[in-house]
Amino acid sequence: QVQLVESGGGLVQPGGSLRLDCAGSGFTFSNYDMNWYRQAPGKEREGVAFIRNTGSFRNYADSVKGRFTISRDNAKNTVYLQMNSLHPEDPAVYYCNAPRLGEVWGQGTQVTVSS
After folding, report:
1. If we measure between CA atoms, which residue out of 45, 41, 83, 36 comes closest to residue 64?
2. What is the pLDDT of residues 26-62, one digit of tens each?
3. Measured between alpha carbons, how far is residue 90 from residues 47, 51, 63, 75 in Å?
4. Which of 9, 46, 64, 74 makes the best surface tag, with the fewest CB within 10 Å?
5. What's the CA angle centered on 94, arms 33 and 8, to 5 degrees?
6. Is 83 exposed, middle or buried (0-12, 13-18, 19+ CB in 10 A)?
């Protein structure tokens, strides 16, 4: 069974940092490009970061460029999102996704930014 499980969210003050993890199972993780998305209340889901299956290419939404870093460890079947300098505009439920798997989503992990 294909599964994606996100973790690492929480409450952080503006300017703080969090690292999100996404563990994949049921598929050959190292063969799949991965995305991080986020969805805030009342807004559409938006792409945040992308990483090639080998880790050789990464891309970011303009809103997070320079603050967020996507990485992966194929030996652990895990993709990460290091989020620094969190803004009040960053709170959302964060999800990972493999484009080739289509509409396979985990439960997401909530990120809250508040002083």
Report:
1. 83
2. 999 999 999 999 999 999 999 999 999 999 999 999 9
3. 12, 20, 9, 29
4. 46
5. 95
6. buried
Q: Which two tokens stand for residue 11?
A: 């409450």
Please name the amino acid found at residue 54.
T
Quote the Cα angle for 8-83-60, to 5°: 120
Q: Give the strand pairing for 109-113 and 10-12.
A: parallel
Which tokens sit at 113?
């930014």
Name the residue type at position 95. Y
Cα 87 to Cα 3, 36, 76, 113, distances in angstroms? 30, 17, 30, 7
Exposed, middle or buried: residue 95 (CB in 10 Å: 0-12, 13-18, 19+)?
buried
Place of tokens 């809250």: 112
The pLDDT of residue 19 is above 90: yes
Q: Collect all residues with Cβ–Cβ distance below 8 Å to 56 and sequence separation of at least 6.
A: none
Neighbours of 24 (CB within 10 A): 25
